[in-house]
Amino acid sequence: MEQRYFQKEIETMPVEEMKKLQSEKLVKQVKHVYDNVPYYRDLMDKKGVKPEDIHGIEDLHLLPFLTKADLRDAYPYGLLAKPLSECVRIQSTSGTTGRRVVAFYTQNDVNLWEDCCARAIVAAGGTNEDVCQVAYGYGLFTGGPGLNGGSHKVGCLTLPMSSGNTERQIQFMNDLSATILCCTPSYAAYIGESLKEQGYKPEDIPLKAGIFGAEPWTEEMRHSIEATLGIKAYDIYGLTETSGPGVSFECCEQTGMHINEDHFLAEIINPDTGEVLPEGTKGELVFTSLDKEAFPLLRYRTRDICVLSRKKCSCGRTLIKMAKPMGRTDDMLIIRGVNVFPSQIETVLLNEGYAPNYQIVVDRVNNTDTFEVNVEMDAEQFTDKLSDILAMEKSLAEAIKTMLGINPKVHLVAPKTIVRSEGKAVRVIDKRKLI
Ligand code: DLL
Questions:
Q1: Residue 250: CB partners within 8 Å, gap ≥ 6?
Q2: CA of 175 to the centre of ligand 1 (A)
Q3: Nearest by Cα to 322 from 216, 405, 419, 231
Q4: How far apart are CA 350 and CA 37, in angstroms?
Q5: Are 181 and 169 in contact (CB under 8 A)?
Q6: Which of 236, 168, 181, 234 is CA-nearest to residue 207?
Q7: How far apart (Å, rounded) are the C-alpha atoms in residues 172 and 180?
Q8: Residue 3: which pLDDT band, with cuts at 50, 70 and 90?
């Protein structure tokens, strides 16, 4: 099968040529930031580094890092590098604690961002013959606007559904024969579950591919979504600070996401020391945006834990790949001294035949951590026979103990009792307030 690319020359560029391009862009970008962003100029001055010291990507490590705390300090305009009169858009994070992150875009920034999303859609097999249902949230969240723009660039018939109203999603999907679905993996799983309940078999569903991201998901979840919807499910990664979805995307190999490295220069660092780590080593992902005009972040620490690889890809793309993020430096739970990633629990659930509808509740009682996992049974698993439920809970607790080395209290709950997410699922309730 002939491979298709959205921007072939870039996506298949020889690595040495790509590095040269990145170096040229970096030199210009550092000067642009130094001249126009007093906040970052101060950080560079404090570190004793001037734009003239940066001759190419080999000098990247000389530059100071930026963190989410810097973004909050500089809120709202402190990292803006263009006059507001040249900005046409803002997007903002879905909001955690403290101040929101507000990112600004010039028309050129929007254009390049949409190119990145278009590359992802084409890599998932999208063409102008496709009907692309965008069920990420629209508005301040970058998911809807990003994939919407990418879908237009590819020439797909775009269904700007936004998230939610699952009945309507299903109706449009069927009436208009949507072939590509873009949403969070947890919402894709929910749509799949609803279709199944309504009696649809995978072969009745018009979809052929899904582009899912914005939250961590496991290989097991991929297989489960692919089986329910009868599609190939592709991962897509990004963050508001670097524009949104499309920083990286999966190709037909489905073994990690190609980074659009003509726009985003990636590094992996030791999160404790800031030391740059060699390719193939696990650490914190750091991005430098090489083309952003309005909100050009240099060495932005994502807090995502990841590994990079330049292994040759059968799709023909030469763009470096990142693995699925393996958690965050800031969402890893430490329960009874053991590091726990929610994705590990999800893996166990799916291996044990449960749907990924679960919630982890952590608390501290009498100076000891409690660790509870509420897991939903599906209609087939559901029983009101107490002895059966106790046996199932025990067996699942043992499987989790084998994975993590600590014992959870598992509660099996009735179908449809864990609140469904139309955006990012809330997987962890940590009541300990350890900070
Ligand atoms: O989630 C942008 C996006 C929208 C990506 C749609 C993909 C699809 P934020 O809300 O700023 O932006 O959240 C960014 O979400 O640092 C990761 O921790 C996490 N994340 C994003 N994509 C993935 C993914 C959007 N594919 C933060 N796998 C990032 C795992 C992801 N985590």
A1: 120, 123, 124, 234, 235, 236, 256, 257, 258
A2: 30
A3: 216
A4: 47
A5: no
A6: 181
A7: 12
A8: low
Is ligand 1 within 6 A of the CB of residue 212?
no
Q: In this structure, how many other beta carbons lie within 10 angstroms of the beta carbon of residue 77?
A: 10
| The residue to which tokens 């590359």 are assigned | 119
Average pLDDT over residues 79-94: 92
Residue 216 Cβ contacting ligand 1 at under 6 Å: yes
Phi and psi, residue 25, nearest 5°: -65, -40
Backbone angles phi, psi at 413, to 5 degrees: -120, 165
Closest ligand 1 atom to 303 CA:
16
Q: In this prediction, what percent of the chain has a pLDDT beyond 90?
A: 79
Instruction: Write the CA distances from 307 to 98, 270, 272, 338, integer angstroms.
Output: 29, 12, 16, 22
Please give the distance, rounded to the nearest whole angstrom, from the Cα atom of residue 207 to the centre of ligand 1.
Answer: 23
Contact 335, 406 (CB under 8 A): yes
- The protein residue with its alpha carbon nearest to ligand 1, atom 30, reads 216
CA distances from 96 to 29, 172, 349, 425, 426 (A): 30, 32, 27, 13, 12
Does ligand 1 come within 6 angstroms of the Cβ of 210? no
What does the pLDDT look like over 106-151, one tens digit per residue? 999 999 999 999 999 999 999 999 999 999 999 998 999 999 999 9
How far does the centroid of ligand 1 lie from the alpha carbon of residue 214, in Å? 3
Query: Looking at residues 23-37, what average pLDDT do you find?
Result: 98
Q: Is the CB of 185 under 6 A from ligand 1?
A: no
DSSP state of 156: P
Our answer on whether the CB atom of 105 is closer than 6 Å to any ligand 1 atom is no
- Can you tell me the distance from the alpha carbon of 167 to that of 85, in angstroms, rounded to the nearest whole number? 41
Question: What's the whole-model pTM score?
Answer: 0.85
- Cβ-Cβ contacts under 8 Å for 354 (sequence gap 6 or more): 375, 376, 377, 378, 381, 396
Which are the contacts of 387, defined by CB distance < 8 A and separation ≥ 6?
none
Q: Which residues contact 232 (CB under 8 A, 6 or more apart)?
A: 124, 125, 208, 209, 210, 226, 252, 254
Count the residues in the chain. 435
The residue whose C-alpha atom lies closest to atom 29 belonging to ligand 1 is 239
Q: Residues 294, 111: contact at Cβ < 8 Å?
A: no
